Amino acid sequence: MSIHTSRHTLSRLPAAALAASIAFVPFAAAAADTVNIYSYRQPDLIKPLLDAFTAETGIQTEVLFLESGIEERIAAEGSNSPADLIFTVDIGRLQGAEDAGVTQPVVNESINANIPAHFRDSEGNWFGLTTRGRVVYASRDRVEQDTITYEELADPKWEGRICTRSGQHVYNIALFASMVAHHGAEYTETWLEGLKNNLARKPDGNDRAQAQAIYAGECDIGLGNTYYVGLMQTNEKEPEQKEWAAAIKVLFPNSEDRGTHVNISGMALAKHAPNRDNAIKLMEFLASPTGQEIYAEQVFEYPVGPGAEASDIVKGFGEINPDTLPLEEIAANRKTASELVDKVGYNDGPSS
Amino acid sequence: MTTFAPSDYQPPASRNAVKRVRHYGAVVPALLAAAIALLPIAVVLAIALSGDGSDWPHLIQHVIPRSTATTLWLLALVAAGSASIGVTSAWIVVAYDFPFRRTLAWMLVLPLAVPPYLAAYAFAEFLHFSGPVQSAVRSVFGFVTPRDYWFPEIRSTEGAALVLSMVLYPYVYLTSRVVFIMQGRNIGDVARTLGAAPLKVLRRVLLPVARPAIVAGVALVLMETLNDIGASKYLGVQTLTYSVYTTWLNRSSLEGAAQIAVMMLVIVLAVLLMEQWARRRQRFHVGRATQIKSHPPRVRLSGLRAAAATLATALPVSLGFGIPVYIFGDYASRRLYQFTDPDLAEALVNSIMVATAAAIVTVFVALLLIHAARLDRSRPVAIATRLAMIGYALPGTVLGLGLLFALARIDNTVDALARDLLGVSTGLIFTGSAAAVVLVCSIRFMALAEGALRGGIEKLPPHLDEAARSLGRSPTRSAVGVMLPLLKPAVLTAAVFVFVDTMKELSATILLRPFGFNTLATSVFEDASRGAVEDGAMASLAIIATAIVPVVLLSGALMRDREANL
Question: Do residues A140 and A163 share a domain?
Fold first, then answer.
C-alpha cells in the first residue's frame, strides 16, 4: 500500500523530479563478479587492500560505509540482503554482529592457518586481521618514567595531568571492559573514579586531540591508539601534527606484567551473503600474510598473523606485549564498562 | 432565506447538512501521507514497547536525570540565544538605515547553510589553545601555557548553546523579519505618527504582533537542537540524544534507546503545543495591510550609532558563517586538488538531487496535509496531520532505523508474494535505494515545510478561497487557483528550508543510502570519523556553498516581496 502511494505521489511531480526519481531506482544488488562490503572502516583506509585483491583475482568490490546500524540493516534486509562481508574495528562490534545473528561461520583451513586462534571466533563467525594497542601518550618533557601500568593511572600523582576522549567511546569502553575482566567491576569503579579525578579537563575530542593537548601543555598523559601516532608522524598536509607526535612518547602499559590492552579490526561473513564464494576468496586474501601486511601498513596497525610483519613506522613505537585476555571476555564486559562510565560520571570530568 | 437567529441558535438540520460533506479526494491522500510519515515512528514505538525495561534501573539512577537536565538547559540557552539574536538583527535591519545594511540583511541568513556538526568543529578549532584567538591572547598578555590564564571552554553545554544559536538563529531572523517588514511598516508607522520612539514601537507594538512568528522560528530551532547529535557529541555535551546512542551501541539495547527516544517526544509535544498556543492567541492577516503600497523611510543612523548597528548585525554573520568558512577554507586551501576530484562532483550531484527531490515531495505533501486539515475540520484529521510532523524531533538515526525496518518489511513481503505468485524475485525495492533517502528526509523535514506554509496561510485573509468556492469552484481547484499563487513566498520558504536541511542531513542518509551513493555530508563524515576532518574541508565548503544559493535567493525574495507570507 505504501509503495503504491509513494509512486502515486511521485507521478504527480514535475518532469524534472520524475527524471531524478528514475535515477533513484535501486542499484542492481549483485553483479556477477563482485563482493559487497558493509564497513565501519572508512573506504579510503581499505581501498589499497581491495585494489590489490581486484588486481589479483579480477573480482570487483563495493563498499558501503556506515556509522552505526550494520547489524540492524542486515537483519532488516533479511534473505535479500546484498551484504557479503562485514568490516569493522572493535571486538564489541564483531561479537555484536554474531550475537545479532547476521553472520555465518566460516571454516577454512587457509584462513585459520594465518590467523591465530585467539584472534578469531571459535566457530568462525568473525576473524581479526590487525591489532592496535591502547597506549599511553606521555609528554617527553614533563613525564620522566618510561614504563607505566593502566592501574597506575588512578594514582593521585597524576592529578590534573591526564586527558582522554569520551569514556563512552568504543576504544575506551573496550579498555575499561578489559579492566573489569581482569579486576572485577568493583575495582574498576574505584579505578575509574580515580582516573576521572586525575583528568585535566572534561573528556572530549578524538585520540589525536589528546596528543595536541599534551603538545599544548594542557596535560601530561593521554590515552590513545598506537596508529594515531603513525598518522600524525606522516601527516604532510597538516605538518603541525608532526609536532604533536614529536611532543609525546608512546608508553606500552603493563608491558612488564599482563600486557597492553589490544583491540582488533576484523571481518565477518554476512549471513545471507549472495556472493559467498567471492567473499570467501576475499577473506582468504585478507588473511594471507600479504593481505595483512598491506592492511597493517596502510592503517599503522599490527598484523595478527605470525607470518606478517608490522611496518617500520609501527615498529618504531616500540615493542608491544599484548594482553592475552580472550577478546570474547572484553566483549562480554562492555555493558558493565559503559554503565560504570555513567555511574562515576566520567564524562563530567574532574570534580573540582 | 435570511432569518436572523440569536448567535447561540444553530438550526440543526442545515448545520448537519454542511458538516456531512466530506472531502475524500483531499482527506484520503492526506491521511495516507500522514500514515507513511508516521510509519517509522510507529516502528520506533513498537521497538520501545518490545523492551523489558531492564535498562531503566541504570538509566534512571545514572543517566536520565542528568541528561534531561542538560538537554533542557541546552534548549533554554539556545532558545534565548537564537531568539535574541534573530529578533534584534531583524529589527535593526528593518527599522534603521546604516552602512552595509542591504548586504548584511541577506548575509544574516548565511549561517543557515552551515551544518551544526561542522560549526562545532570549526568553533572548537578556532577557540582552541593553538587556534588564532588564544594565540593572540597569549601574545598580548605574555602567557605561555594554558595554566597561566583562564579561557572559556567551548566544549561545554554553554559552548554548544553558543554554536547552535549561531547557526540556527536565521530561522528566527527570517520569520520575524517578514513580520517586521509587513506589520512594522504599517502598525509601527501608526504608532510612530502618534509620537512613539522606534524602540518603544518595537517593545509595545511589534514584539507582541510578531510573537507567533518568533515562536514558530524558535520551535524549529528547538527541534533541531533536540535531534542534534553531531555538535553535542563533539563538544562533549551529554544530551538525551547522546544517551540514545550509548544505550544502543555500548549497551546493545536498541529497545532502551527507542524508549529514550519516545520519551523525548514528550518534549517535542510540549514545543508543538507552545507553538500552537502562541499562534492561536494572535491571528493576523497581512493581506489587508499590504494594500498600502507605501515605503515608509527607515530611521537613518549616523556616526557611532550607525557603526554600532553595522557591528551588531555583522557579528552573528562573522561568528556563525565566518568562523566555519575561515577554518574549512584554510584546510581546503592546502587541498585544492580535491576541487577536481570526481568523487566530490558525484557527491555534489547526489546531494543536489536528493535535496531537490525531498524539497518537492515534502512541500507537496505538506500542502496536501494543510489543505485537508482546512477542508475537514474534524479532530482526527487535525491530529493526524499535526502528528505527521514529529519525525523532525527524533534523532536522525532513530528515524532512519524505523524507516529501514518498515521498508525492509514491505520489500520482503512484496518479494515473497512475487516469488509465490510469479516465480520471480523482486529483491529489495526501496531498502537501500536513494528513494529511501529522499523519503526519510521528507519525513524528517515535514515540520519545516508545514511550519512555513501554515505561517503563510494564517497571514492571508480567511475565507479567501471560500469566495472562489461560493462561485462554484471545487475546494481543491479554488485552493490551487486562489490560495497557491498567494502562497508563493511561503512555498519558496518551505522548499528552501527542506532543501538546505537535506543538504546538511547526515545520520539518516548514511544509514539508508545504497552502495556507491555518497552525498557531500556522508563524505565529510567519512573523513571526520577517522579523525581527519581536514580532508573533508572541500566537501564541507561545497555543502555550505550549495546551501547558500537558495538561502540567498530566499532572503532576497522575501525582502523584495511585500506580500511575503512568512
Answer: yes
